[in-house]
Amino acid sequence: MLDTLKSLLEEQIKDLYSAESQLVKALPKMAKKASTESLRAAFEGHLEETRGHVERLAEIAQLLEIKPGGKTCKAMQGLIEEGKEVLEEEGADAIIDVALIAAAQRVEHYEIAAYGSTLAMAEHLKQPKIGKLLQATLDEEQGANEKLSDICSDEVLPSSEMAAQEDETESAVVQRPKRKVSSRQG
Prior knowledge:
By secondary structure, this protein is mostly helical. It has five helices and no strands.
């Protein structure tokens, strides 16, 4: 029952705990599919951060005297399901990497929104310890999003353009009509 701001905060912590726990399982698959080394490293690094997020949320649950589990974050479930579609796709490595980044940034934006609103609740309830823990995670989520943007714009998108140009060149070569050679001489 959501009859107080404190009960809502507790539900948000459980929801975030579920979301982060689901990500701990999904990130290794994304790292494995990534072809760009810096993207793979970013996913692996964020996996370690995400494990830390789960620990922080467990610590917050202790402070609130609740159990963190028992709730399923349906939003994260949907975002991960959408991301699985990318994992099953075939295509140019750079294009798959762009799709992985897009899926990962959807997750990051969801988390940034969720942590931001939960932090505001904790601050309003004058819970500085909880606020500090939430702020640390929010900062890491924002950092992960920025890192993904940088990798995308600096490395992956330029590679995807090259892949597209190579595809166009191959198509032009294959589709070029053969000229008829005239046997008459002029």
